[in-house]
Write a structure and sequence with these properties.
Blueprint lengths: L1 E11 L4 E10 L2 E6 L8 E4 L4 E4 L1 E6 L12 H10 L2 E6 L10 H12 L5 E4 L15 H7 L4 E2 L8 H14 L3 E3 L4 H4 L8 H5 L7 H18 L3 E3 L5 H12 L4 E5 L10 H5 L12 H12 L5 E2 L8 H4 L16 H10 L6 H8 L1 H6 L15 E11 L18 E11 L2 E5 L2
Parallel strand pairs: 1-4, 1-5, 6-7, 7-8, 9-10, 10-11, 11-12, 12-13
Antiparallel strand pairs: 1-2, 2-3, 5-14, 14-15, 15-16
This protein binds zinc ion.
Length: about 425
């Protein structure tokens, strides 16, 4: 089976080049990549006016399976990913039961094989039951296919446990992904501490709750030599800390999500629980700091933290609704609208943060555009305008604060191993 993709603007995230090239795909791999290829193939895609890039890699997704499948399951999560141009994703362990054993890692992997073709890489819990007490068997989890360790959803309060896990992970060569928010400063609180929390007469989650733990985990990375990856950075000062630590040569990487460079805490005033997320939406100053961090490379990755909840759950009052928002089907469009069309960042730099960088952090054989690699590709029209309508989502969930937003940039084809798994109608 030969697939030819013609006339596209091919983005090479490693070399920063954007070239007019055709791609020939044979046996699931890229076999030719040249200026003009003869139109001989079983199937031809005319990508005129479109961008062709490595398939997007989303390293922070909640698929809610096993146990919470009324919110999402692995199959609907894969379908949502495909619609969003995501060809590989890593899913968090805070399911029910927790993914803290080799059996559950295998369950996630096997279930994903029944999906539409999106590659699913399980992340295993770093503590048993995410309780933050006893470490999991990192070696067995890695052997079963876990690509990283994380108690995401929870902060790891116990510094001794975190240090112990970092030492184990470092020996195994896998990263530890850290959800940084000091529990004593945020427990039971729904929004950022600031003008909005004051207006609503609520106790807030202060920025310092995140920054203290970012600092702690960076220092633990320095001391142990382990690779610490900070999840969903949301404050300007977290970016500053990570920038300084990187300059010292510490093995630290980090991600942010579209909501943190697009929205502020004010969103809570109009959208209530729909804008509730952990860490919370912050201030305009923080949004600026996040964008600066993305531009100068301090922030390595744009992930979604896709966190599905049911309509009933998100209809609850702000203080009683669960935290989180979905993102798989909107992430590329929001990112292009916010960073590319505003001329804040160039395409290769954006695409690198959504492909090569997350892939390298998790040691996946993905995120590259060269001969012989898996033909996992995303083809999108960077200029097509559309309005986000959650009713069109393949996800089971609808909890996005971006409903009704006009965006620019639309996924046209998602290809995994040379097979078209999604095509825009
Ligand atoms: Zn988290």
């Amino acid at each position: 089976m030969k697939l030819l993709i013609q006339n596209g603007r091919v983005v090479h995230p490693v070399t920063n080049a954007v070239l007019l090239q055709d791609l020939l795909i044979e046996d699931g791999k890229i076999s030719l990549l040249e200026r003009k290829l003869p139109p001989e193939a079983d199937q031809i895609i005319d990508a005129s006016g479109m961008v062709v890039c490595p398939g997007l890699v989303d390293m922070h997704v909640h698929l809610r399976d096993p146990g919470l499948t009324y919110k999402e399951d692995i199959l609907t999560g894969c379908a949502a990913a495909a619609r969003g141009g995501v060809t590989s994703m890593a899913c968090m362990a805070n399911t029910d039961p927790t993914v803290d054993s080799p059996e559950l890692v295998s369950y996630v992997k096997n279930r994903a094989l029944e999906g539409c073709g999106v590659q699913v890489y399980p992340i295993a819990a770093l503590s048993k039951g995410l309780r933050g007490e006893e470490p999991t068997d990192a070696e067995a989890l890695k052997k079963a296919g876990a690509v990283a360790l994380s108690d995401d959803g929870n902060n790891v309060d116990n510094a001794n446990l975190m240090r112990d896990v970092l030492i184990r992970a470092s020996r195994l060569g896998i990263p530890v992904l850290c959800h940084c928010e000091d529990t004593t400063m945020v427990a039971g609180r729904a929004v950022n501490e600031g003008s909005v929390s004051r207006q609503l007469w609520l106790e807030g989650r202060p920025a310092i709750a995140e920054e203290l733990v970012v600092m702690r985990d960076a220092m633990l990375a320095e001391e142990t030599g382990a690779h610490v990856h900070i999840c969903h950075v949301s404050t300007a000062k977290s970016v500053e800390i990570i920038r300084r630590m990187k300059k010292k040569g510490i093995a630290i990487t980090c991600e942010t999500c579209p909501q943190y460079f697009t929205l502020t805490e004010d969103e809570v005033l109009t959208q209530g629980a729909m804008a509730r997320v952990n860490p919370p939406l912050r201030t305009a100053q923080d949004v600026k700091g996040i964008i600066a961090g993305l531009k100068d490379g301090t922030i390595d990755v744009i992930a979604t933290d896709h966190a599905p909840h049911s309509a009933e759950e998100k209809a609850r009052p702000l203080t009683r609704a669960p935290s989180g928002m979905i993102g798989l089907e909107t992430s590329l469009a929001i990112t292009l609208t916010q960073l590319y069309h505003t001329k804040k960042m160039e395409l290769p730099a954006i695409i690198r943060r959504m492909t090569t960088n997350p892939s390298d952090i998790l040691h996946l054989p993905k995120g590259r555009m060269s001969l012989g690699v898996d033909a996992d590709l995303t083809i999108f029209d960077p200029d097509e305008e559309w309005v986000i309508d959650p009713e069109q989502f393949a996800s089971k969930a609808r909890n996005t604060p971006f409903a009704g937003h006009k965006v620019k940039g639309r996924v046209k084809y998602t290809i995994v191993g040379g097979r078209i798994i999604y095509q825009d109608a």
